[in-house]
Amino acid sequence: MPAETFLPPAADLPKADIYDDLKSQLDGLMAGETDLVANAANMAAVIYHGLSELNWAGFYFMKDGGLVLGPFQGKPACIRIPVGKGVCGTAVEQGVSQVVPDVHAFPGHIACDAASRSELVVPIRVGGRVIGVLDLDSPVPGRFDEQDRAGCEALVAVLVDHIG
């Protein structure tokens, strides 16, 4: 699917339908492409423009034992995050998605954008190893729930299916 044919899902759809739509569009955008950075860049744009109430959507990838900023949409972000620090580092350390309704209540939260109030981080696993994370921030407290977690895990699975 050519990038210019991306259409954000209607905001009034049920969340499950929004994620199904995004998953289908990502699969089409990534068809025939295996480059991680290219696919992550398009995925960040699709998520940022396809989900409501986000102020940041992007990736951090493992490099030299820590997370390094990858493709994203939103304001400039923290460049390096140690494993075990903040929501992203915790997701890597624990190997599970993190749904944080109030980032100010999260011990050790790293504030890259003071406007962020809630966060969702999904580890990206290839061959049993975490290679990075998908990170979403929102200025709305409690923006993310278990449906968002499941939906974003499904989107990450599309990315993993399309990298070489």
TrEMBL record:
<feature type="domain" description="GAF">
    <location>
        <begin position="21"/>
        <end position="164"/>
    </location>
</feature>
<dbReference type="InterPro" id="IPR000614">
    <property type="entry name" value="FRMsr_CS"/>
</dbReference>
<dbReference type="InterPro" id="IPR003018">
    <property type="entry name" value="GAF"/>
</dbReference>
<protein>
    <submittedName>
        <fullName>GAF domain-containing protein</fullName>
    </submittedName>
</protein>
<dbReference type="Pfam" id="PF13185">
    <property type="entry name" value="GAF_2"/>
</dbReference>
<comment type="similarity">
    <text>Belongs to the free Met sulfoxide reductase family.</text>
</comment>
<dbReference type="InterPro" id="IPR051330">
    <property type="entry name" value="Phosphatase_reg/MetRdx"/>
</dbReference>
<dbReference type="InterPro" id="IPR029016">
    <property type="entry name" value="GAF-like_dom_sf"/>
</dbReference>
